[in-house]
Design a protein that fits this description.
Helix content: 25-40%
Number of domains: 2
Radius of gyration: 20 Å
Shape: elongated
Oligomer: single chain
Structural class: alpha/beta
C-alpha cells in the first residue's frame, strides 16, 4: 500500500482527497495536516510514501513546507493547486525548484466524473510507488550505438510527464541560448497549467519558450504543444496542430510527435524521453529510431517515475541513457557543428 499524507487548510478539500484515497485500493491515508507547520512535522513523524501539498496555508506556506521537508530528506511532494491563471500558475511551478516533484490541479469530484481526480490518483500511485520493490524483467540498457546517418540535425522532440517540468528546466538551462533548431515539447499536464509552465520555464531558464500554433514556422526555438492538441512536425518546416479523436489517452501525444518527426526529419531527428508515468512515446521513438534518428532517454536514478523512459528502453528504441544532469550537455554537443552525433555509452543497468 502507498501511504499518502494530505496537507491542506481547507476541510472540504481534505474530505474530498480523503474520499479519493479511500476509493483507491492501492492507496492508504497516512494522516492529514491543516497547515504547513503540521505538514512538516507529520511528514517526518509518519514517513508517508508521498504528500499532497496545498500552497496557500497558515503558519507556514506550502512553499516553505516543501523546502523544509525536502531539506530533511522527507518523501516526495505533489503540489495540488487551484492556481490556473498564468501569473499564479508561474508561482505554482516555482514550488518545483524548492523540491516538489509535480503539480496537479485540485479535483472537484470523483474519478468517474472528474478527470483531474483520476489524474491525481494515477500520479500518487506512480510517485509513491516508485520506491517500492517491483518484480519483473529488467530491460537492457543500450551500450555503444552508432548513428546510421550522420546528417545535420533538423529538429529535436522532447516528451515528459510526471517530474517533467523540473527535468525540462534543467535541460534548458544546460542548453542556454544554444538552440539552433526547433525543439518541440510534449508535456502531459492538467489542462490550464501549460501557459504558466511555459512562462516559468522561460523566466527560470532564460530561454524563450512559446506555445505552438498551427501553421507556425518551425524556426530555431522552444515550442510546447498546447492543451488538447497534438503537436506535429509538418512538411517544409511547418508546425501542425491536430485535435485528435475523442477517447484518446493522451492529447498531446508523444507518439504522434515522434512519428511525425520520423516521417519528415528521419535521420535528422533527435528524440528525448524524460521522466514520466506510462509508455507514451515508446512506439513513436521506435519509428524514429528505425528511420535513423538518435534517441536519448533519462536514466532511472534521476527520474521521478521511470515509466516513459523505461518503456522506450524496453522497446529497443533508445541509443543512450543518461542522467538529467548530463542530458542537456549531450544534446548541446549534438547540436554543435562538429560536436559529434554518434551514440555513447548507456552506462549501468537502470532497472525496470
Amino acid at each position: 500500500m502507498i501511504r499518502v499524507l494530505i496537507a491542506d487548510d481547507s476541510a472540504t478539500a481534505r474530505q474530498l482527497l480523503r474520499t479519493l484515497i479511500e476509493l483507491d485500493p492501492d492507496l492508504e491515508l497516512a494522516g492529514e495536516a491543516r497547515d504547513g507547520e503540521e505538514a512538516v512535522r507529520l511528514a517526518l513523524e509518519l514517513e508517508p510514501d508521498v504528500i499532497t501539498m496545498d500552497l496557500m496555508m497558515p503558519r507556514i506556506s506550502g512553499f516553505d513546507a516543501i523546502r523544509a521537508i525536502r531539506a530533511a530528506g522527507g518523501p516526495p511532494v505533489i503540489v495540488v493547486s487551484s492556481a490556473l491563471d498564468p501569473e499564479d500558475g508561474e508561482r505554482t511551478f516555482s514550488a518545483l525548484e524548492l523540491g516538489a516533484v509535480s503539480v496537479q490541479a485540485k479535483p472537484h469530484g470523483l474519478p468517474d466524473r472528474d478527470p483531474r481526480a483520476a489524474a491525481l490518483l494515477a500520479e500518487l500511485e506512480a510517485v509513491g510507488g516508485e520506491g517500492k520493490p517491483r518484480p519483473g524483467v529488467v530491460p537492457p540498457v543500450p551500450t555503444a550505438v552508432e548513428r546510421r546517418d550522420q546528417q545535420r540535425v533538423q529538429a529535436v522532440g522532447i516528451a515528459a510527464s510526471t517530474g517533467g517540468p523540473l527535468a525540462l528546466l534543467e535541460l534548458l538551462r544546460s542548453l542556454g541560448r544554444h538552440v539552433p533548431v526547433p525543439i518541440l515539447v510534449v508535456q502531459h499536464i492538467t489542462p490550464g497549467f501549460l501557459e504558466g509552465m511555459a512562462a516559468w520555464l522561460e523566466r527560470s531558464s532564460g530561454v524563450p519558450v512559446m506555445l505552438a500554433s498551427d501553421g507556425m514556422r518551425a524556426s530555431p526555438g522552444i515550442f510546447m504543444a498546447p492543451d488538447g492538441h497534438h503537436l506535429l512536425l509538418g512538411r517544409r518546416g511547418v508546425l501542425r496542430l491536430e485535435g485528435g479523436s475523442p477517447g484518446e489517452l493522451h492529447r498531446p501525444s508523444a507518439d504522434r510527435l515522434f512519428r511525425s518527426m520520423a516521417e519528415t526529419a528521419g535521420a535528422g531527428g533527435v528524440g528525448v524521453i524524460l521522466t514520466g508515468m506510462g509508455n507514451d512515446g515508446a512506439a513513436g521513438l521506435a519509428e524514429l529510431h528505425r528511420r535513423g534518428g538518435l534517441v536519448l532517454a533519462q536514466d532511472r536514478e534521476s527520474s521521478v517515475v521511470w515509466g516513459m523512459p523505461g518503456a522506450a528502453v524496453a522497446a529497443g528504441a533508445v541509443d543512450e541513457v543518461l542522467p538529467i544532469a548530463s542530458l542537456g550537455m549531450r544534446l548541446r554537443q549534438i547540436l554543435t557543428p562538429g560536436g559529434g552525433t554518434a551514440g555513447g555509452k548507456g552506462g549501468k543497468d537502470h532497472g525496470g
